[in-house]
């Protein structure tokens, strides 16, 4: 941790706890692909610190809003409490300090059950419209969360087309490729084919964004918004990492419509496009193949 950040963390924690807080040790924690993370031991307890100076200014504040929304959903799931979140400023990292969660994979079957039930409970928290209180980020990519009553329009314009334009600006995209995505958006009413409720979602629910802890399964690193709940479930299938028990408990608690699997690749498309924007490589080819499959 940079020396300047060390003193800022102590100062912000002191303000939060209304007493002088001193850091006794910092322990780097790997696993993230964008931000720096570490366990911070202090005289008032241990915390998780994530920081970066090369991300959008408000990224950590927006993450804090997502965590707060998930925590307020009051599900079976553990969500770490936000202690402080700050903006990136000139020559200074932004950061988020969270309650530290001890990883514990004992009694995994029971934790799998609670994860499935907890996700079903989360998706039963609904809103009148799709979107979220502010735009936020999936990784470092901006998400257009302007409220919209029409899910198909929201997904087509505020997710797929939003990413297409970002890719065009940052990596380049041919007119013919853009036409494929424009044509896909035109047929979304037929390809989505249902009228979902606006469910609270994690938004970036892959296996690296949940933990099994001493108190149960926990969600971290959200990109939350109100969406078709199948968006979370599609990403869960994209890279795997969720047991059959999780799926069975979810289905029992909140059954999915029989045709939901037909939409899995369509909803994964958003994340393939985002991976292409962030990391390049073959994700662009995979995205185009998915889009063409639905035309």
Q: How widely separated are the two ends?
A: 49 Å
Cα-atom radius of gyration: 20 Å
Number of helices: 9
CATH class of the largest domain equals Alpha Beta
| Biggest beta-sheet profile | 5 strands, antiparallel
The counted number of beta strands is 12
Low-confidence stretches: none
Structural class: alpha+beta
CATH superfamily membership of the largest domain: Aminoglycoside phosphotransferase (APH), C-terminal lobe
What does this structure look like?
With 295 residues, the chain is α+β, with helices and mostly antiparallel strands. It folds into two domains: 97 residues, Phosphorylase Kinase, domain 1 (2-Layer Sandwich), CATH 3.30.200.20; 186 residues, Aminoglycoside phosphotransferase (APH), C-terminal lobe (Aminoglycoside 3'-phosphotransferase, Chain: A, domain 2). Helices cover 44% and strands 19% of the residues. The chain is built from nine helices and twelve strands. The strands form four sheets. The protein has a five-stranded antiparallel beta sheet, sandwiched between helices. The chain has a three-stranded antiparallel beta sheet with strand order 6-9-12, with helices on both faces. Strands 7-8 form a two-stranded antiparallel sheet. Helix 4 runs antiparallel to helix 5, helix 4 runs parallel beside helix 8 and helix 6 crosses helix 8. The longest helix is centred in the middle third of the chain and has 20 residues. It is globular and about 60 Å long. 40% of the residues are buried. The model has no long low-confidence stretch (mean pLDDT 94).
């Amino acid at each position: 941790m940079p020396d300047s950040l060390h003193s800022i963390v102590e100062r912000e924690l002191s303000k939060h706890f209304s007493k002088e807080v001193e850091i006794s040790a910092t322990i780097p924690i790997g696993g993230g692909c964008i931000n720096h993370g570490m366990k911070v031991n202090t005289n008032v307890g241990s915390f998780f610190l994530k920081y970066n100076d090369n991300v959008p200014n408000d990224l950590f504040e927006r993450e804090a809003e997502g965590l707060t929304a998930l925590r307020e959903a009051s599900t079976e799931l553990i969500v770490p409490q936000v202690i402080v979140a700050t903006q990136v400023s000139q020559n200074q990292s932004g950061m988020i300090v969270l309650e530290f969660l001890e990883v514990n994979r004992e009694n995994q079957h029971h934790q799998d059950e609670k994860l499935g039930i907890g996700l079903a409970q989360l998706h039963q928290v609904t809103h009148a419209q799709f979107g979220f209180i502010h735009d936020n980020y999936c990784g470092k990519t901006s998400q257009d969360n302007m409220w919209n009553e029409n899910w198909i329009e929201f997904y087509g314009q505020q997710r797929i087309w939003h990413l297409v334009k970002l890719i065009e600006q940052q990596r380049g995209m041919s007119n013919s490729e853009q036409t494929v995505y424009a044509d896909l958006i035109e047929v979304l009413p037929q390809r989505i084919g249902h009228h979902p409720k606006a469910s609270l979602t994690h938004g970036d629910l892959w296996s690296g964004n949940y933990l099994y802890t001493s108190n149960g399964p926990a969600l971290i690193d959200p990109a939350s918004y109100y969406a078709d709940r199948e968006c979370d479930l599609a990403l869960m299938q994209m890279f795997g990492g969720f047991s059959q028990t999780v799926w069975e408990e979810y289905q029992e608690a909140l059954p999915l419509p029989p045709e939901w699997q037909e939409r899995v690749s369509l909803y994964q498309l958003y994340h393939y496009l985002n991976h292409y924007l962030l990391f390049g490589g073959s994700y662009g080819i995979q995205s185009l193949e998915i889009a063409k499959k639905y035309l």
